[in-house]
Amino acid sequence: MRRAISYGRQTIDEDDIRSVVKALRSDFLTQGPLSEEFEDRLKRHTGAKYAVVCSNGTAALHLAILAAGIHRGERVITSPMTFLASSNSALYAGAIPVFADIDEETFNIDPAEIERKIRYNSPVRAIIPVHFAGHPCDMERISEVARENNLVVIEDACHALGASWKDRLGNLQRVGNCSHSDMTVFSFHPVKSITTGEGGAITTNDPVLYKKLKLLRSHGVTKNAAEFKAHDDAPWLYEMHELGFNYRLSDIQCALGISQIERLGSFIKRRNEIASLYGAMLLKYPFVRTPAVNEDRTSAFHIYPARIPFGDLGISKKEWFLMMKSIGIHPQVHYIPVHLQPYYRSMFGYNPGDFPRAEKFYSEEVSLPIYPTLTDEEAGAVVEAIVSTIACAAAASREAAGLKRILAAS
Ligand SMILES: *Cc1c(COP(=O)(O)O)cnc(C)c1O
Q1: What is the domain-level CATH number for residue 297?
Q2: Ramachandran region of residue 107, left (φ > 0), alpha (ψ -120 to 50) or beta?
Q3: Is residue 26's pLDDT more than 60?
Q4: Which pLDDT score, from 0 to 100, does residue 177 have?
């Protein structure tokens, strides 16, 4: 029996295991030297000046919003086509998430929609663009809009560690270098580019933000005597300067992160190979629409968002999904548009139809399995399964329609 194929999974090897075991034998279990080493690796990889690791991607978003000084009642623009954390983190700070609909080619937030939202909502303080599926947003346009309107930009790059793009001058920009934003946020959840179990990070080039992020990560406490407000340097002293949190990442987890980031390049390469393979194999089946390829953008392919027009084919997405699961292939759907969640509907009065592009995308989207250890044979089996289940479901729906006609005529 073939192993079940899920939409995403971690890639752990013996080096990862040795690295974690070594941390367990060391003096530090919580934040210690390995946290700093993991931060150094993240800086080296992204090219940002500073990196702060923390307990998860959601905490990273929360810290970024607080460090940016976003206050109660201020508005934060983000995409409705994202994981809940992108907008929930604004709510944690008492800010109001405002959604701007997606671009139909890239499924990323549409900069023209951002501009429209700025015109009709005040005061807007920040934009949180999400690099959906790992495909980099148009950061040049977004940063221009932000500059014109004096807005903070926090990139939600939870899908996009390892992604890169070329700017208008042809320079390579790595996601996380913050060349067109104030801060970039990552997640190390097991299905993301690399994992620490749970984990997250923020990168920035701004020393003031960096200091705030570090303070807020650990109770708002400093142990640095040079920063003390009381002019006392007794050796046991620490001072709390802000209301912070415990959002630290343990050294056990950082040991895994350090070992994982070594293989980030090969992970992203394999994800891109699988994406090309799907693209080539699905060419024969135009009823499955594959994500557009852009020469100037290298996606991290956190997910592979295919689209199937279930309505036009006369089949139910739910039935198709269950058929796939019954043969051991577990696709996923990314995402239920955030504004359609009961909480958002009841708090902000959203209704179906408010973000039509995101909703249409949701009705068609299926995330095909993609992760570094997925074999070519398994990718082939996924495509075969899609084709046969769709043919089967279409036949069943034709038969049902036929039966209905016969019954109506009798
Ligand atoms: C995974 C994810 C997050 C949250 O990350 P966690 O580490 O699970 O808290 C935030 N935003 C997006 C877009 C994500 O995919």
Answers
A1: 3.90.1150.10
A2: left
A3: yes
A4: 98
